[in-house]
């Protein structure tokens, strides 16, 4: 290669060709969460770009650094669009681009299609939470929502637990039927399509709310959360009742500063009204993964994890992908300077 600064571009199909396993992705995310708990990271709260587009979507900008990766650590920035109506034109609702940088020189190392990264790191975070906060004998998963992250939530949780049943639903019948068919082709666990969130969550051990609401609507009812349940609400717009936290024995977030920032999030109202505060928050997940606080301690605890999406997870998976691509000589080298 001629002199100059070169970076590696990795397209979605090229990333898919690397064959990363779900276990590798979950382990990479868990390591980043542990680093966060141990103070081996730095990142800034996400910011939003709101174009004048009639409210059909916005962009999230995430920035983070992990000390342990590479010789000097690695820094990264991701821009992800959040456009709910994209399904109408055959596009994912979340399309993303990630960039990685050498933190000692500022030299760009890679540009990646981060669409899969965004979805997979979200499912992996749900699963890391479940490793530490859910009952090991959980048998029923209730999942509401069928967007890109849903596939990773369900398949990774199925890898973790010996489930008896997976219940799925979403607002559009054609969407939930397609999602269930795809899951059934991949997994051995029975997948049941239900018409409502109430049916999906009724008696479930693990309750995941990953909806795409435009206006707040209480789909995850507080009364549905039985003793011993693990609850993960992370829709952009709230789909839970205001008293949900009142029945929780432990409330865990990915990062408290991040939980307080921005205008979106499943528990936005709970933060704004003081129901979720430093006094009512049990821990950040990194504290639990790093062994600083216990996770689940009894079979009857109701535990909630709210993860808004840490940039650190995007950087961790993007770096994993880059190293695998370098070893396999996959991607296109682009002259930068």
From TrEMBL:
Pfam families (alphabetical): OCD_Mu_crystall
Keywords of this entry: Lyase
Enzyme class: lyase
Molecular function (Gene Ontology), one example: ornithine cyclodeaminase activity
Domain of life of the organism encoding this protein: Bacteria
Protein EC: 4.3.1.12
InterPro entries, sorted: NAD(P)-bd_dom_sf, ODC_Mu_crystall, ODC_N
Gene Ontology CC entries for this record: cytoplasm
Name this protein carries in UniProt: Ornithine cyclodeaminase
Organism: Kribbella flavida (strain DSM 17836 / JCM 10339 / NBRC 14399)
């Amino acid at each position: 290669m001629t002199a100059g600064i070169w970076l590696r571009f990795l397209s979605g199909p090229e990333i898919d060709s690397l064959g990363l396993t779900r276990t590798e992705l979950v382990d990479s995310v868990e390591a980043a969460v542990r680093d966060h708990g141990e103070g081996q990271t730095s990142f800034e709260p996400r910011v939003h770009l709101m174009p004048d587009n009639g409210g059909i979507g916005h962009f999230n900008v995430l920035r983070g650094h992990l000390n342990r990766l590479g010789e000097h650590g690695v820094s990264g920035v991701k821009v992800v669009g959040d456009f709910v109506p994209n399904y109408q034109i055959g596009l994912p609702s979340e399309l993303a681009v990630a960039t990685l940088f050498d933190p000692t020189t500022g030299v760009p190392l890679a540009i990646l299609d981060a669409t899969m990264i965004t979805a997979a790191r979200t499912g992996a975070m749900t699963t890391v939470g479940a490793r530490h906060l859910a009952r090991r004998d959980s048998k029923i998963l209730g999942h509401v929502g069928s967007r890109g992250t849903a596939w990773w939530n369900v398949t990774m949780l199925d890898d973790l637990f010996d489930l008896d049943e997976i219940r799925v639903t979403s607002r559009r019948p054609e969407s939930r039927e397609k999602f269930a068919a795809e899951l059934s082709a991949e997994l051995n666990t029975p997948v049941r399509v239900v018409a409502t969130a109430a049916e999906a969550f009724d008696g479930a051990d693990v309750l995941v709310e990953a909806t795409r609401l435009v206006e707040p609507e209480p789909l995850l009812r507080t009364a549905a959360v039985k003793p011993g349940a693990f609850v993960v609400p992370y829709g952009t717009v709230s789909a839970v009742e205001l008293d949900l936290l009142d029945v929780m024995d432990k409330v865990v977030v990915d990062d408290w500063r991040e939980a307080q920032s921005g205008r979106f999030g499943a528990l936005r109202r709970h933060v704004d009204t003081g129901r979720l505060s430093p006094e009512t928050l049990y821990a950040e997940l990194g504290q639990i993964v790093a062994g600083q606080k216990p996770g689940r301690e009894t079979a009857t605890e109701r535990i909630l994890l709210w993860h808004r999406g840490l940039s650190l997870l995007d950087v961790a998976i993007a770096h994993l992908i880059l190293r695998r691509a370098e070893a396999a000589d996959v991607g296109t080298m682009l002259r930068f300077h």
